[in-house]
Prior knowledge:
By secondary structure, the protein is of the alpha/beta class. It has 13 helices and 13 strands. The chain has helices at residues 15-22, 27-39, 63-78, 91-103, 116-128, 140-143, 156-169, 185-197, 212-225, 237-250, 263-271, 282-299, 321-329; strands spanning 5-6, 51-56, 82-87, 108-111, 133-136, 151-153, 174-179, 201-206, 231-234, 255-259, 277-279, 309-310, 314-316. The strands form two sheets. Strands 1-13-11-10-9-7-8 form a seven-stranded mixed beta sheet, sandwiched between helices. A six-stranded parallel beta sheet has the order 3-2-4-5-6-12, sandwiched between helices. Helix 2 (27-39) crosses helix 3, helix 3 (63-78) runs parallel beside helix 12 (282-299) and helix 4 packs parallel to helix 5.
Amino acid sequence: MARFRTWVGIAVAGALSLSLAGCSSTGGKRAEDARTAAARGRAAVDTPRWTFAMITHAGDGDTFWDIVQSGAKQAAVKDNVRFLYSHDDEAQQQAQLVDAAVDKKVDGIIVTLAKPDAMKAAVARAREAGIPVVTVNSGSAESRRFGALTHIGQDETIAGEAVGEELNERGRRKALCVLHEQGNVGHEQRCDGVAKTFDGTVARLHVNGTSMPDVQSAIEARLQSDAGVDAVVTLGAPYADTAVKARQGAGSDAEVDTFDLNAKVAAGLRDGSLGFAVDQQPYLQGYQAVDLLWLYRYNADVLGGGRPVLTGPQIVTEDDADALEAYTKRGTR
């Protein structure tokens, strides 16, 4: 497997599996038995059947969250957990979904904080009800302040800085950072990070992320009006292919790069239509969020020490495409 370039050290929260593998000469077999049980749809533990709810800010059709769910569901099977998933890209509706989970008296809540101000009261109600909360993907700066056990994901500013450094290495001079969700603080932080380390100029383009034709036409128009743009950075994998089409329509030579992975991005890295991608390992975010809630319910374990548990960023390129393609096709990368 290609050796991915990791921009920061990644703290992986697999405490249970690590302890099983390392605590004795039979640890490796125990860990393998646990993985085998999960793969066969059987729990690897005999703890009570707790119910965990994940509520995200995902919009309809966003394949990133399919990968998050894939990891969460795999961990839920292993941990004998009933997993509930709901989402809404409108912050007030997302908060109401958290309230609904509290009313159901679930045993743990996993939530994203893309728009933290709108989510603060809902998270507080969960904590007041005695329900442990883990934040995932977005909201690392607010997680601890809101009373969550820990945050799992990548630091969005650091991820943006990694992109800026990579663009420097590729000799780019002007980057277009395409924001597809109004008010998402994580997206703003990504573009801020790019601007912090990039030696060139960063322009921002806000698009209607719910309509791919609108996204394509907006990027195409900007590339036609500004021939100096030599890099287009999209903030989500589903938008990378659209940006490639926009580049073609504009007759531009700009390189298209993206945050996040899916099967199309892996294929784009392989055929050279994409320059690089930033992987934050969404499968790991879902898996570890469930696993950490289980560990907390079972043994009052908490990881992170008050700091986020980082799952990225990793810069992946054409060299990594072969290794990634199989994983993206099965929905785990």
